[in-house]
């Protein structure tokens, strides 16, 4: 039991056996609105050599998948698109999705209602949701504010949409807009995942059935990147890969996403009204490393507020993910990753500091 020294004695320091009280961080939004802000607190300064590697100037365009051809009843068109999808997953891990059928007005509405959410008072935002990765609503700043040693120039809200739908109470229109948007996006994601399954030489519904996507996890993760007076010192999001199977991202016209490709960082300028898709760690596991969950990051700028809405789609929380047996046996490849429940992976990722690497390295076999 900890003993307490009399007050006023030099021994009345906080005992080391007690965890420090949780940090009460201000949001980046509030910080960026401080009058006359011309520099940034040192806790937002990332070491130059680690994260600010040069950006590639190649103009190699990222692959585009025409969703309408993926769902085409013309078998030739569909199989050609599936081959392109497989190639995009193998070579890039990222691709644009056009002709997806989600109306432009819904994409605009979700961005605007998330902007309104971030405009709520600090007290209102801080008062909602929990702090744990499995809490259905989570508002916060940085990446994982309880463990980050350097803070990211980003505020976020993450809201479970499926298998159970959740919504903050404010703004009042959030519920209806999010429900409609997430339903439509989930249909697109599930169809792409079917295509990915086929592109791996598996049954079309293999991933859907094995990982119980009927009860699959889907979140809305809204990111706010306020203007930063020293963008070259800060990071919106440092390099990371996404958990889950497939993330579909949109943004308000303002760029900032960079993707690692052939060892270099590439700026991504999405085609308007398209989704930027990336495969997540659990496709890498399921494919036994054939498809890689690629590192990406978000940089910030000193002019415009950037908002991005990422919608990750994962297995059911209780599903155990391991390399597909067909991909392991057929090629005589030993499984490169251990089996793990999706829910446990999420907890592992939340407890891990971002160190420029993917959390996947923690469950890779033999290295
Ligand atoms: C994410 C993410 C990138 C962006 O939310 O996981 O990578 O451009 N976002 O905001
Ligand atoms: Ni991401």
TrEMBL record:
The keyword Membrane does not apply. Keywords: Iron, Metal-binding, Oxidoreductase. Residues 1-24 are annotated as: Disordered. Residues 213-315 form the Fe2OG dioxygenase domain. Gene3D superfamilies: B-lactam Antibiotic, Isopenicillin N Synthase, Chain. One of its GO terms (molecular function) is metal ion binding. The keyword Metal-binding applies. Residues 1-16 have a biased composition (Polar residues). InterPro entries: DIOX_N, IPNS-like_FE2OG_OXY, IPNS-like_sf, Oxoglu/Fe-dep_dioxygenase_dom, Plant_2OG-oxidoreductases. PROSITE patterns: FE2OG_OXY (PS51471). Belongs to the iron/ascorbate-dependent oxidoreductase family. This is Fe2OG dioxygenase domain-containing protein. The lineage of its organism: Eukaryota, Viridiplantae, Streptophyta, Embryophyta, Tracheophyta.
